[in-house]
Amino acid sequence: MFKLLLMVSIYYPLSVGLTFYQKWFIKSYRLPLLIVAGHYMTKFMLASVIRLIVEVVQKNRRVRIPVQEQLRWLMPIGVCASLDIGLSNWALEYVTISLYTMAKSSSIIFIVLFSLLLRLERWRASLGFEACLIALGLFLFTWRSTQLDLRGLLLVELAALCTGVRWTISQLIMQGDEQPSPLRHPLDMVVHVQPWMFVAILPMVFVVEESELNYKTLTTYHNEFQPLLILCLIFMGGVLAFLMEMSEYLLLVNTSGITLSILGIVKEVITLLLAHHLHGDHLTNINIFGLSLCILGMMVHSWMKQDRKMQKIPMRMTSSTFIPSSYPKNEHEDRKLLLFNEHERV
Q1: What pLDDT, in 10s, does the model give residues 249-285?
Q2: Over the stretch 151-168, which tens digit does the pLDDT of each residue have?
Q3: Cα-Cα-Cα-Cα dihedral sign, residues 27, 30, 36, 38
Q4: What is the pTM of this model?
Q5: How far apart (Å, rounded) are the C-alpha atoms in residues 210 and 308?
Q6: Where are the alpha helices (DSSP H) in the chain?
Q7: Cβ burial, residue 340 (10 Å; 0-12/13-18/19+)
């Protein structure tokens, strides 16, 4: 529990800080997709250098994934992650943080659906109830009738769909024992996924921002020629994005895609409360009711998860008493635990 709280305490400041940093940056440098492409390059360089240092210190070569396996597993993650981040940053040009959060709340529905399709979760009525309750609560919490922008809304919903695909496949790879080349450490995952993310974002940069891609626009910030400052600001955002993505994968390895989504929603609530405070907005009764529903949904999820854990304990005790130690299920569980402990170390 302490380990989870520590990871969450790292994830929240990074994620909230990056959201406000990006919103602030693109107000004066209106090339959000190019900025994201710069973040991908920064993340890949940082992860590669750190991984090389770890290999030298530990004198142990880390996992390398063949291209064929990357095409099968990592390319879908990279493309969906790139579209998720790229579309989200693009949408921030047209919508407020409140509307963005309201629309992105549907991502938990997509994650539940894809988790069921990939058999990462078993269908339970409580699972659907939790997801709908949280999504509805966050929708009402961010409700503003004057904020609607159809173009921005469509972009955010497409990003939410990509979120669902991204995290369910990532969970399948990082937690599954039967994958041919499992990536169980966040550092290895970042190194292998970033190139695919960069390849996926490039066409979007040229299609969407082609008219702005000229020397003057690229090097002008606040109506002044400041290319070095622009590079520094993109690099700083990339460092934040790298640290945040590492913390996301750490949470995914230790929890699940659905739990990560719920933790992300808590982060979105914190972001919105900060936005309300900084911009002097007032919460309406509908907003307060939505926040209550959101918190209730999270409490139901936590309670149901704890209840399932408690139910497994007597089942394991019974199986260890009455079932021989050579039973395949116990061997599988022991192997899974050993694998997880091995790959958890840097």
Answers
A1: 888 777 766 676 677 767 767 766 776 676 665 667 8
A2: 887 888 898 888 888 878
A3: negative
A4: 0.71
A5: 52
A6: 2-28, 32-58, 67-69, 75-91, 97-104, 107-117, 125-141, 150-175, 186-208, 215-219, 227-254, 257-279, 285-322, 328-344
A7: middle
